[in-house]
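Long-time lurker. I teach an intro course on protein structure, and each term I like to show students one example going from raw sequence to a predicted 3D structure in token notation. This year I'd like something fresh instead of my usual example. Would anyone be willing to generate the tokens for the chain below so I can use it in lecture? Attribution to the forum is fine with me.
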Amino acid sequence: MSDTNVFRTINDLADSLPGQIARIREASGERPGGIVGFDGFIDTFIRLENPSTMAELGPKIEAAAGIAASYPAQHIGDKFGGNGPLFASAMHGIHNGAIDLTYIGAMGRDSILPIYEEALGNKATKLYSLADPAHSDCLEFDDGKVMLSDLRSCAEITWERLLECVGPENLDALLKKGEFIGAVNWGKLIHVGEIWENLAERLAALGVKAKTIPFFMDLAEFEQRPREDVEKLMERLPKITAQCHTLLSFNLKEAWQMGAFFGGDFSGKKDPDSVAELARFLKDNIEVDRIIIHPNDGAACASREQSTYLPGPVCQKPLISTGAGDAFGAGCLSATVRGLDDLGLLLCGVCSSGYYVRTGDYASFEKIAGFIEKWRQGPLPERL
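-- Reply from a regular --
Happy to contribute to a lecture. Here you go:
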């Protein structure tokens, strides 16, 4: 029977924080290397002005059904996007640039587009592009975001295309010397499950010692995937877990959906105890090493030993919200690469995200440690 630890405020961690802060500061260490993938988007950002929240806009749209509606908005412009590129950028920031990243994704069919060369060219050691990027219109609100996505190019992300673009020998060399895999956006990449499984099988075939490579997976809004796709993923995960140290991450809505898949009734339950219980429920039903759930106001991690909930450094009016989940995930994976425990993983995740939404920039391990120290001294400012 595993323990459940629910920390409701940062003060509940008073005894643990000094040691955790010291370990996070020490995490900079040697230069790690690994693979991140496999999507790519061009995001057009639109900021709704009035109403400024999803909660206010929803009833207005419903009332306007069958007629029309118009709302003032700011077009912020285009930016490189996709969970993978944002995740890779956050990994680069957390390690303060001392990281060898290979990014494999959708950055241009025939050549890498300038927007990706500019965004990732100085962050990744090598870029491999498999397809044109998808496109999303990102409607940003004070309380969340709505993504309107054209996903047609996502179907081109396949194992065969990866081997064609990267080359079997290059891929094997990357896997043999790599220390992590960050694989995100299963929900929109309909063939990526085969890539995940084949990477794990290739690691085993290359003689890489089992359980030494952290493999971070994020499903990223999988509501549109049919039940049989989820069932197939559940069949793949034990094979990946046999070879790698697996981390499967959800936002709270996704965790509710996965809980319902296994017959659990957690929908709408946002309190810390319920989130910790849901993490444990998913861990009991899914063969991975760690289940991670990240609501907007905290995070939970369930492993074999325990289920832990940690509050987050909430920002009421984020400077930016798109990419916050990827900053969180990159914090969790980076902490795992450096051997931190579940609590250290959660601290790196929520503080990486909390720093990002206040600054629009990525926190290094040193900045995460400083952020935690500032947090325990009292309420954090909305901007740093």
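Some talking points for your students: The CA atoms of residues 215 and 246 lie 5 Å apart. The chain has 13 helices and 14 strands.
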